[in-house]
Design a protein that fits this description.
Length: 208
């Protein structure tokens, strides 16, 4: 009887853990369902492999699905990433430099594309459920492409909304974004997702 009871308990625990493990994908699906546009403020912290904080920044994220986003760093420096549906533009104001890539090629280097893309996650990433920690449900994505610039990105969901994105790059450096003031489906101007390099800056990559 004890063995049967133990087996039954183990089966129940297994079912419970399986149900919990499915929560991350479920939260992701629910968050993206009906999402056409999004606006959010964010703060970002970068930590080196030794655990030392090397950078703290903040800014604003705009998304227009499918395949358009604007990630703008406003403090302590200005930097801009714009995906226009065909290309991703990366503008560093201090360096007076613009880098442009085909959007399909940039997926592995710009995790913000995850939120703007309408492709199934499993097509480009290995998806692993990480369960719940401190009220946040986590999902981990590892890019299938070998040339991706990050090893994994974890998405954290709380109260039905995405509140954290944590990335690990190939050098062990960790980048964590915390989202605030998330607005679902706000009206966004189309020109927010267009970019023209300022005169005089160096443009690396494709021509306009």
């Amino acid at each position: 009887m004890k063995r049967l009871a133990a087996a039954a308990l183990a089966a129940l625990l297994s079912l419970s853990l399986s149900a919990q493990a499915a929560d991350g994908q479920q939260h992701m699906d629910q968050f993206l369902a009906g999402l056409k546009t999004m606006r959010a403020d964010f703060s970002q912290i970068v930590v080196d492999p030794d655990g030392t904080v090397v950078e703290e920044t903040s800014g604003e994220l705009l998304i227009s699905r499918p395949d358009r986003f604007r990630l703008q760093y406003t403090a302590p420096y200005e930097q801009l990433y714009v995906a226009d549906g065909e290309r991703v533009w990366m503008y560093d104001k201090d360096l007076e430099q613009v880098t442009v890539k085909q959007q399909g090629e940039a997926l592995g280097s710009t995790p913000a594309l995850l939120l703007s893309s309408t492709e199934p996650l499993a097509r480009n990433f290995e998806v692993t459920e990480l369960g719940e920690r401190e009220g946040t449900t986590w999902l981990e994505l590892k890019p299938r492409r070998q040339d991706a610039s990050f090893e994994s990105v974890q998405l954290g969901f709380r109260d039905g909304a995405l509140n954290t994105m944590a990335m690990v790059d190939g050098f062990g450096q960790r980048t964590r974004l915390e989202f605030r003031h998330i607005e679902r489906n706000p009206r966004l101007e189309a020109n927010a997702f267009r970019f023209t390099p300022p005169k005089g800056v160096d443009v690396i990559g494709e021509d306009e």
